[in-house]
User: What shape does this take?
Amino acid sequence: MSILLATHFGRAELAQWQALLQAALPDEIFVTQRSAAHDNDDNNSDNNSDIDIDIALVANPPAGALHGLPKLQLIQSLWAGVETLLADATLPADVPLARMVDPAMNAAMAETALWAVLSLQRGFFDCAAQQIARRWQPLPPVRANEICVVVLGLGQMGRAVALRLLQAGYRVVGWSAREAEVPGVQCLHGEAALPAVLAQAQVLINLLPLTAATHGLLEARAFAQMPAGASVVNLARGAHVVDADLLAALDSGRLKRAVLDVFQTEPLPPAHAFWSHRQVTVLPHMAAPTDPRSAALIAARNVRALRSGQPLQHLVNRTRGY
Ligand code: NAP
Ligand code: GLV
Assistant: This one.
């Protein structure tokens, strides 16, 4: 049997993954290209490599990449978010789908969130603008314990972020779908609690998965429920935000700043208003990138689990969408 590596990776990145995966799984055969015949054959090509593929390791593969693999038993995403995979109507329905859960990614996300919150607290984003204007303007002190940070999503990323911010002295409120407990964090859950959560958000950090329930959640009504002068930090997915509403809230002064790592269209198109808005900080989707050095080992663990009949880790609940 063989393992398909279906990704958007360039040549060098793919070579790095192949080397790491082969080192972790020396007995496995990896395939990176499916037969050209596959594209034109809905009944599956009779190409041997397609027929023999029983595991797919995927990172944003093109739609249809996993269609027509009769022996497929495991889809392992190399990304944490799986909304693009789930949106592919040809994704085999009965094959277990696992997502990437890597403590190294959680740690990176916590660093990004801490940088954003600290910069907002201390006015460092304002200092960056002042530097461009050659303006010398020390800002008044604000203490960490005077800031309430709301973290939407208390999963792998959200918990790591909440704990890191707590450690740094911030007051932290978390929101999840189901009841959750994170020591030191005020945890609320469910749609009904959202207004009470937003009302406390001097800084709002979004770490929700993109699902039907969370699509467009950060829109005018949500911004109106936040304290005046609050800031939004979106580290999850661009489609959580209604861009026009965010821009309006920034322009009206309702919101002070947005720190955005993710966008509806990536790369962010050159003409998009976010690029030049003085209250927006743009990151190129790098808050918590998959690190092949650890992620290859984590993917390999699930491959070995499948081969030895052990339980698979970090399976996606397709009904919930994450
Ligand atoms: P996760 O472990 O699945 O956690 C998701 C959290 O969101 C859970 O706490 C879940 O609540 C909560 N949630 C889901 N739907 C909700 C709803 N309708 N209302 C309230 N809470 C809801 O996911 P994760 O690993 O932390 O990753 C979160 C997202 O971060 C990913 O989906 C991806 O989009 C994004 N991400 C971004 C980057 C980057 O570099 N920018 C990197 C990695 C991931 P329950 O616990 O109650 O189910
Ligand atoms: C990155 O955004 C991921 O979902 O892993």
Q: What stands out?
A: The pocket of NAP (ligand 1) is lined by residues 80-81, 105, 153-158, 175-178, 180, 207-211, 213-214, 235-237, 261-262, 285, 287-289, 322 (CB under 6 Å). The chain has eleven helices and twelve strands. The two ends are 28 Å apart (CA to CA).
